[in-house]
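Page 42, continued from yesterday. The earlier attempt failed because a stray header line got pasted into the input along with the sequence. Redoing it now with the clean sequence only.
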Amino acid sequence: MKKTLIGICIILSFSGCASQNKKNYTSKADKYQLAMHFNNLGAKYVNKDMLDGAIMQFKRALAIDPDFAEARNNLGVAYCKKKMFDVAAEEFKLAIKINPDYCKAHDNLGFAYRSMSMFDEAIAEHYLALKINPKDLEAKKNLDIAIEEKKVFEKTKSYQTANKGIAPGSITGYNQYMRGFLDEAITSFKKVLDEDPNDTMASCYLGNTYAMKGMLDNAISLYKEIIAKDPSNIVVRLNLGDAYFGKGLIDEAIHEYENVLKMNPGNTRAFYKLGEAYADKGLLDMAGITLNKAIVSNPNFLEAYDKLGMVYLQEGLYDEAISLWKKLLELNPASARAHFNLGLAYSSKNMTEEALNEFRRTVNTNPTNINARYNLAYVYEEKGMIDEAAAEYKKLFDVSSGEPGKDGKTLNNQEEPEKVIVTR
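This time it went through. Structure tokens are written below.
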């Protein structure tokens, strides 16, 4: 912390009255470098959830260069994290005014609109982001979420009008839960249960909200109460199994998933979660059998392919693992995780060239994947490509340290994609 404060003081002295011994930032390039420094410092503060400090740094960058679109975008992200969505939206709009083709600013503006239940506006912004960059998977995911949340929002409004049996507080809590306002959702569901302790919908979603916040003991207690009243509630049993799994209570989780399959023998999610629990216990044969059942139940279940591939890799069944990840890539060609795992399987079979290609594809899709960069450097080294290995180790160090460029380069002129913060 002391080093950070010293660094800030040095920068502040640059922006004040310069003495004869201090550099006077007057040229356009110098101002840009200083603005970039404040922007990068703000980014680090955001990553540490020091949001007020981040906002201050982004504003310093913008005081130097009001047309710094990336700093505008990042300031908007910081406001989003403080749930000041209306203020954030204005910053994203300013970033777009400066650079109309700024894909991430459009995507983030969509996020802000969505958080204010302005779903049509959100969908329009995510569409614009994808029009600018059709390969932006984050924008595609956000578009899908916005479309689904609009359906949920409209459905809950119609419920409120047509079905007086659903407590208004449950509808409010559900919307808060879906938008990530977990503390507010807990308050809403508790108010409903204070008035009617038997409201199953409020109880279920209160348990889900506890689980989302990591309050697993609370979630487990509530799920068990619901099951005591309704032992046939499969959804709650699955959630109880997940909560047990999250607590590391694997035997208890297995028991719940098995109970679900007794009541509903074809439940795909129960097969998958049971296979995952078996794998966690080291019961790889049973995990493999169960995960195969999940895939038979749903041939498009991507997570099951990935998990089963990892089980096969642990068992030394490399050809089977390779076959699974190739199938996963047929279903989802953009999966960086599948490329990485396929690289591991090839490496395990000493198929060096194939492993090299997969690790390259991984870092091209996800430049900050530290494990992929390390494995890529290692394979280069094994092949005697020392210069390539050294370059990759340097990139690995830069990514690990969070300082993308120790040679004076700014974020915009590095080989890696522009590093701006993106609202998730």
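Notes: Residues 1-25, 403-424 have pLDDT under 50 and may be disordered.
Reminder to self: strip header lines before submitting.
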